[in-house]
Design brief:
By secondary structure, this protein is an alpha+beta fold. 30% of the residues lie in helices and 26% in strands. The N and C termini lie far apart (77 Å).
């Protein structure tokens, strides 16, 4: 028999009942049921329950162990009684009746628990990172990352790409952030830079005729943390192709992205290829963002002309100065109280905007300050053009085009969430194309 294990802690099933086996792992949990001791043994692969009664030669040794001690257990696989089968555990139909226990490493009192998902201060988690990484969620995340990278690599190779490694110590090639600099030992007073992206090297490879390159590339940028990026460094799927059009690039990467999300998305639906193409100008008009959440069915409309020289002086004045007015529909919002609309207006102010106008429709009657000032005929024409129903609502963002688009985009997201309109269990991809070459700077 192997010195440490015949199986891992997720391998044993009912078919193994009666076998003598050996497992090694960490003591995950212990439960003393009055003379009957249960130990959950954990390794990279899963959990197996170990059992010893008070008459067993190993009972006292197991009983004295602290959690996270490392042990090797030898014993017989036995079937669990039907009433104690754990259907949530791969090994839930069996347990190991321990006959021998060898302690490989005694654990001391733990500064943070490994079992469970209780939140702990970041400084403690980082100081005892080796314990933090044993916790189930982090362990699963790291394994997931490995599997995603393997899937990306396989899919790129299947499309005829070769993986090449580019240098890490290089000359400075700014990509919009500060470089990390490394002093040179052999050239005192001079510095290498860590690459913000492998941009220069992959273009050299295309000029040299390598045709199809990809890399799971490390990128180093001396910038603050973002919601979707670690500070300092991150990895990206980087690829380059020769003799291709924009559509060729899209067609190449779409099955890679869709395939990875189908493989690891937990059954969520994924936009099939080809992904929708949305012009930048349309994205900013209809969604108020160049990265629109297409799970939200709401679309913003430009209603500037409805307020030009209108009875609503505030918006009319903005339009006369070159401003725009954007409308965000709120289906069935009229069934809510006025507080829903006032809360949205207060939210806009908390976000740093002047406010968010609205029209509230109840049983076909339009209410709110904008409807009163605009007049019944103009209001009805506006609502008809927007296609609103008898119990809908609509919010308005007005101002300079960029500011109005930003407020309208944020409001669209918030209305979608509050009215529970966001499509569940799905990933919705698109390409935003035709970005402007320049952006106006006041």
């Amino acid at each position: 028999m192997h010195a440490y294990r015949t199986h891992n802690c997720s391998a044993l099933r009912r078919a193994n009942v009666g076998e003598k086996v050996r497992l090694s792992g960490w003591v995950h949990r212990k439960r003393d049921h009055g003379g009957l001791l249960f130990v959950d043994l954990r390794d990279h692969y899963g959990l197996t329950q170990i059992v010893a009664d008070s008459d067993s030669a190993v009972f006292e040794k197991l009983d004295q162990l602290r959690l996270e001690s490392v042990i090797t257990v030898t014993g017989e696989v036995v079937e669990r009684a039907p009433e104690v089968v754990n259907p949530n555990l791969a090994t839930g139909e069996i347990e190991i009746r321990a006959s021998e226990v060898d302690v490989q490493s005694f654990a001391q009192e733990l500064p943070l628990p490994v079992a469970g998902e209780a939140d702990y201060p970041e400084d403690i988690r980082l100081r005892y990172r080796y314990l933090d990484l044993r916790r189930d969620r982090l362990h699963r995340n790291i394994v997931l990352r490995s599997n995603v990278i393997a899937s990306l690599r396989r899919r790129m190779i299947e499309q005829g790409f070769n993986e090449y490694q580019t240098p890490i110590l290089t000359a400075s090639s700014p990509e919009g952030a500060r470089d990390y600099l490394v002093p040179s030992r052999v050239h005192p007073g001079k510095f290498y830079a860590l690459p913000q992206a492998p941009q220069m090297f992959k273009q050299l490879m295309m000029v040299a005729g390598f045709d199809r390159y990809f890399q799971i590339a490390p990128c180093f940028r001396d910038e603050d943390a973002r919601a979707d990026r670690s500070p300092g460094e991150f990895y990206q799927l980087d690829f380059e192709m020769s003799f291709v059009t924009q559509e060729d690039v899209f067609a190449t990467i779409e099955p890679v992205l869709a395939g990875v999300f189908q493989e690891f998305g937990g059954g969520k639906t994924v936009t099939p290829a080809p992904f929708p193409r949305i012009a930048y100008r349309d994205a900013m008009l209809y969604y108020g963002s160049d990265k629109p959440d297409l799970r939200n069915p709401l679309k913003i409309s430009d209603v500037t002309e409805h307020f030009r020289d209108s009875g609503f002086g505030l918006f009319a004045g903005m339009v006369a100065k070159g401003g725009v007015v954007r409308a965000i529909p709120a289906p069935e919002a009229g069934k809510n109280s006025r507080k829903f609309f006032d809360d949205m207006n207060n939210w806009a102010r908390e976000e740093g905007f002047a406010g968010l106008g609205y029209i509230n429709i109840k049983n076909g009657e339009a209410g709110g300050p904008i409807a009163r000032n605009l007049g019944e005929e103009a209001t009805q024409k506006l609502l008809a053009d927007l296609g609103l129903g008898e119990n809908d609502g609509v919010f308005f963002a007005a101002g300079k085009e960029g500011e109005a688009a930003r407020l309208a985009g944020l409001a669209r997201n918030r209305v979608g969430e509050l009215l529970d309109l966001i499509e569940k269990d799905s990933f919705r991809f698109c390409w935003v194309v035709d970005f402007p070459m320049f952006e106006y700077d006041e």
